[in-house]
Fold these 2 entries.
Entry 1:
Amino acid sequence: MRSPRWAAVGVGLLFGLAALSAMAASTDRWQVPVAVQKLDNGLTVVVSEDRSAPVVGVSMVYHVGMRLEPRGRTGFAHLFEHLMFQGTPAAPKGVFDSVISGGGGRINGSTRADFTNYIATAPVSALEPILWLEADRMQTLDFSPGNLKNQQDVVKEEIRVNVQNQPYGGFMWIDIGTKAFDKWENNHDGYGSFEDLEAASLADVEAFHRDYYGPNNAVLAIAGDISPAEGFALAQKYFGHIPARAVPARTDVSEDLNTAERRFTQPDRLAQVPAIAVAWKMPDRGSADQAPMAVLGDILTGGDASRFYQGIVKGRELALNVDSLYGLTSAWEYDGPTLFTVFSLYKPNVAPEQMLAAMDEEIAKVASEGVSAEELARVKTRMLADWYNGLEMFLSRADALAKLQVLWGDANVVNEIPRRIEAVTSADVQRAARTYLTGENRTVIDRVPEALLQARASAAPAAGN
């Protein structure tokens, strides 16, 4: 039995968390500085001034990703992201890296369903070289057979390392989408197939750059030691002369919630224990249900205090861990159908049906009883802390602002999301659980070590006798 002293401490902690949540809801909330301007060529520029350090973060986000890559070219948006680092006629291969790293900075890039982002952070003295380099590769690339072949091989090796030769092979973020969605734009493997990657031509590369990498399909965000006036002037200086380009009309990628459960079993030659991925289609971005679903996701899977961890890992001792993800992004960064996916390694003597039943039981409790004020306050406080912590680093802030501007059409959503989180009620969470986390809207992949799968198959007839 827990002692009265510790019970009192626990009650005090809950009231403390409620007070923190109330404080976050007050006028003392941090208002992230956001200034936005659009150049005549359509490039949207976002600046977040912060003079706390002589550093800047820069993010260039293009409104194209895996969802819009050409049919028969799965993985092409990812391949193109790699090609953007292979140089231009004015800045040959290696110049981009050496200039920024030589100035004390670092760079990276990534491809997601709805965007491709290129990020850099450096001392403010290196900002102009960064912008010159970004503008240079927006205008053209070194479209050479050698660069294309080199990066086709690089991406193929990345797939070998991260998917083919890894236990579970990313089935919780690659395979689950191919099973849950119906439209090709949403359900193909954006990481890429070897056959499609090898089929990509220089003509494909040139067309993709022409169609999607113009200034009017991009957002430039700068956060750190710079004023909005300075940032807008530099953007005009380096990007203002680049002409806008015609962007292909976006296809309709919308999908309804699923109406029947989808179940699959996959063998795994490298895994030691079985794993399960359970995914539900999410509400639309910007809808009234988005924030309640994000809060519900944290209630169920947000750390060791979550319902799934306490009920499935600790309580029933069925699983070794539990985690969750929202496609390849977050609960706020998507512009088309996405999934809330729960991923768990579970014990070999446990049946997948037991895992699903345990999850269903925890979801049913929320759907029928809601959540207490104390639990809701704790979860909101955690989510708000994570949100603001993620904006502290200039690089992360610039990237978040650029992505919100691209996906929502308004970088000021960065200050709206905390208010949406705070406004979520227990009734909202119940509604989200009843609407989205249903058996009919669920897709399940049971990923099983080959030996265990064979043992299950051998035991099945005996179980039926």
Entry 2:
Amino acid sequence: MKNFKRENLMFSLCGLHCSLCPMNLNQYCPGCGGGEGNQSCSIAKCSLQHGNLEYCFQCENYPCERYENIDKFDSFITHQHQKRDMEKFRELGIEPYTAEQQRKKVLLNHLLNTYNDGRKKTLFCVAVNLFELDDLENIINELDENTSALPQKERAAYACRLLQEAADKKGVVLKLRKKK
């Protein structure tokens, strides 16, 4: 979108984790405000009208009507914790929150490089977005300890099983919710 630029391309204006999105991983999207080729976004237009804010939560009108159902459905990336993640970002501050997201990106890359059988990218992206960092690190440590001798397909199945078991315990839904 013309004239819309941002410094932090890992975390979007509206609270999505761009760096954990399959579109970003596949180099189809640089992240919110990361280039001229981005699609038009009503929230980005709103940001420009309110002084080119880096994050919606910086606006005096946040949360506005745009956020009433923003986390009801997903796009290429989960929107399930969008508002919660913006609150966490606001509370922690840019450096600690960005460090956490950078660590999550490392863990996502490890999952994709070590446990993806070519069919798990969306699952891994959703899981890394929704689990807390400690939970992810524990899951990946268990995977690394127990799967090194397994063939790729079995490692992928083990990873899926472990992620789903953790999701069931935490009440997390590891599927993108599409509009019908």
